[in-house]
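User: Fold both of these, please.

Assistant: Here is the first one.
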Amino acid sequence: MNDHYVRWFEDVRLKDVPEVGGKTASLGELSALLAADGGRVPDGFALTAEAYRDALTATGAWQELRSLLSDLDHHNVALLAERAAAARKLVYDATGNNRLTREIANAYRGLEGKCGAGVAVAVRSSATAEDLPNASFAGQHESFLNVRGETAVIEACRRCFASIFTDRAIVYRIDNGFDHFKVALSVGVMKMVRADLGASGVIFTLDTESGFCDVVFVTGIWGLGENIVQGKVDPDEFYVHKPTFRKGFRAVLSRALGGKQMQLIYASRRGATTENMPTPKAARECFCLTDAEVLELAGYAIRIEDHYSKLAGRPTPMDIEWAKDGEDGRLYIVQARPETAASRRAPNAFEIYTLKGAGPVLATGRAVGEKIASGKVRIVAGAHQLAAFQPGEVLVAESTSPDWEPVMKTAAAIVTRRGGRTCHAAIVARELGLPAVVGAEDAVEKLATGTSVTVSCADGEIGKVYDRELPFEVIRIALDALPRPRTQIMVNLGDPELAYHTAMLPNDGVGLARMEFIINQHIGVHPMALVHPEKVTSKKAQAAIARLVHLPATSRFLCRQAFGGDRYDRRCLLSEARHRAVVGFQDQ
């Protein structure tokens, strides 16, 4: 039996995945990697996978677990819930032994010695098959935030161990070919970053929808990060171009203000650790990150991607979580794992979906993927309504949760009222290859159960839900069978939102976008109306402009939106992709 079940982050590296799981091993690797660059990873410790195995062996729980899971029909939702609950109880009871609880208490006291008495911690699962290049296990196990005191930390650790048998984790392992009994769980205990007083979010080192790999995609919200992952709010979004960043030309390529409707903070009432509060109007109307902070995060993300790519021996796009501490004002990296959806698309083939009909648009939001699907609407207000969902229907909800995944796998498409492109619904839709529209404000009100709709994500960043089932075409092209002409084929782009998607098609360059298209489609207001707002007499136009402008100096809005900065340059080349894709702006 192992004599010591605790490993501190500073002593852990990626090679320790079998002992502390993917999540914690990555935290240790990040801590060593970023320290030289001024980056920060919160302090903490891990309870090893051996602690989990020894606890189950000591109580003889293995055989009973095998009996519960060996003949399980995971499509039977009621049976799955019953067996999973019984399995979790076995693990919870087993991990309450004296030796393990004593070591948890001692380690927490050690963390108090470093960070202060009663330090708040996050208790998070870390599976030995987690955060791998071919399987993320994202959202399958439980996490607990703002946990304080020895007793509460021990309880959270036991519940975390037991979450290896959540309904969704069992289904995920079966669907991805993992043996339940060859995957063990470690638990990470990490000092909380006071993002409840600051901000948090997710970074991808590629464009999540097109797979375009030359950008860093940063999303952020006010408060703790659970809301962004669960899709309860619409986040701010930022893009940074990697090749120009590496050359020293560091600017935010584009930014989009999100609704940030709620913020998760430390709870003020007894019996709860966190609570959601409405975000004040002033906070909703400004970005949660400055440009300098976006660029700092982009620098960390590029450094992390380079490091993991070197270790893997191949390009490895990353999925990274960050948090800003509202007390010290600093940015922290709290998780990093290989991205497992967009980066795994077959590079030798692509599909083009095209609508062949037209109809009324019922709802719009952020497009996830590039596909089209039709089906009957099923509005789901909560988990209690999932049993009524029929395969092939369009799932419409406020947001989704990991517990819904067995049903989401059978949907034709997914539509949510809240969420951005890094939320749970978006991540699952990408992994399943389903079209999804997230952050569709009026979806729940305008769509009705039983009506037929068409969900289209084939027109760039805006996803649309059309009335009725519309005809569409799918063209599949094998690139290895496509002859390449001697003449270079270059694309003159009109809509800048299609830049990343177009760059992924076979071409020798994506060319200069015309300024009038940028103004018409991306900015949405004539520049002279911003230079001389006093000359705009229409009340309707004034209101529309007010909704667009979120900066103190309205005359700088055009330049910031189009050029990603406060300065207008005569020529600003913003993209130089691996296909030499160029999106530029020129004043002639």
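And the second sequence with its predicted structure:
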Amino acid sequence: MTRDANGFFACPYCGANTLESKSDGLHCPACSKTYPFSYGLANFSFSKVAHWEEAEEGIMRGLLNSFVGIDDALIEMLNKSDPKLKEYLTGYALGRNRAGWKFLSSLNPGGRVLDLGCGWGNITLSLASNAGEIFAADVVPERVALTVRRLQEKGFLNVTGCVASGWPRLPFPDSFFDLVVVNGVLEWVPGSPRDAQSAFLKEISRVLKPAGQLYLGIENRFGIGYFFGRIEEHTKLRFISLLPRFLGGLYHLMRKGSEYRAYTYSRGQLARFLKCAGFPDSVFYLPYPDYRDFYRIAALDDPVWMSNSFAPRTIRGKLAKLINMKTGFLRNFSDSFAVLSAKSEAPVSFIERLRLHLIKRNELGAQARIDQYFITSTARVNIRFIDGDKKYLLSLALDRRAAKRIQMAVSARNALSSVIEGSDIAADLKEFTHGEFEAEPYILRRFYKYENAAFFYKSDSASRIMECSIDWLRKFHSLRVEEAPFAPALLLEGGFQKMLSFMPEEVKGAYGRFLQACAGKLFKASLVHGDFRMENILMDTDMKVQKVIDWDLAMLKGFPLWDVFSLLIDIRFMKGGSWSLAYKGAVEECLRLKKENGAFARYLEAMGIGDADFWLSALTFPLVQLYYKMNSGDQHPAVIIDDNFASVISYFLERAVKI
């Protein structure tokens, strides 16, 4: 797993960068120190203490010894975990939002990046696609080994891992990195808190190039939640960070029997701390809801950006926003910070370079500025620009999987617009430009003023959302309807058999035989959106559909009911539960609505969809979801094929065979 040590590592004891690789580890000829290998990785850590709060040591080693891919082993492990641990680890190990800030940094394709405290590699994985070289370091050998293997399995050959604690020195030469990431790490640096943390930050300054940047994610000592009794994350004690350090130390000693060391800081304290460590220029952002897993981020000192980033619906939320706009209290009392710090004048960020590029191409106005920055559930970063009364939405990808979705969206839009030329929907599809900047694909389109259907969702509004959406689907699907013979071998671009192979053994045979028995039978085919969820349906205040966005998974020929099932499953997922139970509920809801003289019954009549079409649509839908979600990298089979899947499919097969 290691690469040649020469030029990459420096002795953390004496600073010499002429380490020699030997059978027992890396040897420093200057001071005669030897650093052993752990899982094939150089181990520079002087600390023997490992934090296993995210998983037991045996679980981590089991993952590394797995014969399947790391991500597959992770999913299998998570499915066997306690529900609370599963929820935590799903975000910690597989969450894709943790690097959502990266386009605000000066990251560039030829840069060298260090993820210091890499954990299970979420941030490392995202940054690897934008960096020339990526280094992963952590105090726990298993974390680094797992991160390096994850990246290598995904085709990244630019990754180097090492075990490092940062004490007494980081094992890297001076002026080596363009970007160093310290996410949720500073407060855990061992030793006397202020002295150890100061030395740690000075070490980061040493290994950064003169124009390099530090990204720091950390809680705010005076976060507003603590004043309302939220438990402090590191000590599990209420109010401790709000107390003077001396009293906080006594409180911790009385309750925990140990010294209080997990220091966090207020904004002013942190800015001064960074400046003393060699970072005179720092920009503070608010990651919402928390720096560990956020879906929005805003510059704390930009009142327009802050104001436009949040649209609370409750009276309490609206009051809080008004107070913040008047007083700016969140500048100092946000729950956590995302900080980009520079050793000298702040370098130009990726998003600023791209903005200037788009202005040069006349795709943005010269005065365009950011007023929203948010991350979607499919790891797409959407950045809204305002330019006078015009608004634009720029979409970027957090990782390779999301980049593939963007490329799919461009292809789908082009194919669809040529087929439905002249319609309102075709005009909507053409309201975008796309390209690639510094190897990063992007889509730019006009921003629509409407809210998505999820904004209007309440238990008593679900039927209204369904009715209005079905009316839009009837118009869309009617643009191209034909009868076509069902051909399983050609289904999903030839991926039918592969998707069938993921089915549980108890239903695989019956499932396959049913679909083969339907081969050659005519079915109603139409255009299909492919991702018809509430998030992608834009409505006016009367809840009428005005636009539909995100055509990544659109198809020219498919079962129109696939879009209906997508919407109903999404509505049911808002209430929680498993995918297969939501799928069962969606199909049964359609059967109920079919008997009523409502929007769905009119839709079925207009499209000419009979019972045979209905059940063939219902039983091919899970295969389609598997194929398109996996093909774009959004989901693993276990997300859809959960513990209830086999019984649900068996139930529907019994009903379908009778038709």
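The two ends are 57 Å apart (CA to CA).
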